[in-house]
Amino acid sequence: MTSSYRPQRTLPREPQFMHGTPGTIYILQNDGLRQGLYKIGATRRSGVSKAMELNRDHQELIPGVYECVFELHTKDCGQALDDILKQFQQQRRGKKNQEFYELNLDDAAEKIANIIATINRQGIMRQQQATLSMMRHLEPDVIAEKQAQEFSPPPAGLFRKAFDWVAS
Fold first, then answer.
1. Are strands 92-93 and 100-102 parallel, antiparallel or unpaired?
2. Most-buried pick from 64, 70, 86, 157 (CB within 10 A)?
3. 27 near 105, Cβ under 8 Å?
4. Which residue(s) pair with 41 in the sheet?
């Protein structure tokens, strides 16, 4: 007798570590859970679309409806999520794969905004340093191009007379 086991198809999960990838850090609230318990995560889309995805996932064992209560875009959502989860590790509740935290929403939003601002500033500084580095490599080419643009007229003689005639 053969088994006809077919695993049910689930929605694709966002990669947990998206270092270097721009994205959104979100906080979701579920009305089926106790007050003050929130899900924190990262996505390349929006927090609202992540909440809608979780609400459509029928294999999700948590009853209730998810609602996005906070989201903020960052230049590196993998690094931001790592830093945020370290910040809130003492408030973590639930199973290992579920990122639920018992938090005061206003305090958590402020801490997350500060972490994201720091990461975005670091990203801008890295980008500026890379641009400066490229400019240093391009400087000899830029100088040669400027010299080529600063065309000097030919010396006196027959060629000079032809040049003046064409230029006028």
1. antiparallel
2. 70
3. yes
4. 26
The Cα–Cα gap between 11 and 151 comes to 64
Q: What is the chain's mean pLDDT, rounded?
A: 79
Q: pTM for the whole thing?
A: 0.66
Confidence of residue 56 (pLDDT cuts 50, 70, 90): confident
Ramachandran category for residue 147: left, alpha or beta (phi over 0 → left; psi -120 to 50 → alpha) = alpha
Q: Which amino acid is at 96?
A: K
- Lookup: tokens for 147: 């010299």
Q: State which amino acid sits at residue 126.
A: R
Has residue 73 been placed in a domain?
yes
- Half-sphere exposure (Cβ direction) of 32: Cα atoms closer than 13 Å: 9
Number of domains in the chain: 1
d(CA 114, CA 106): 12
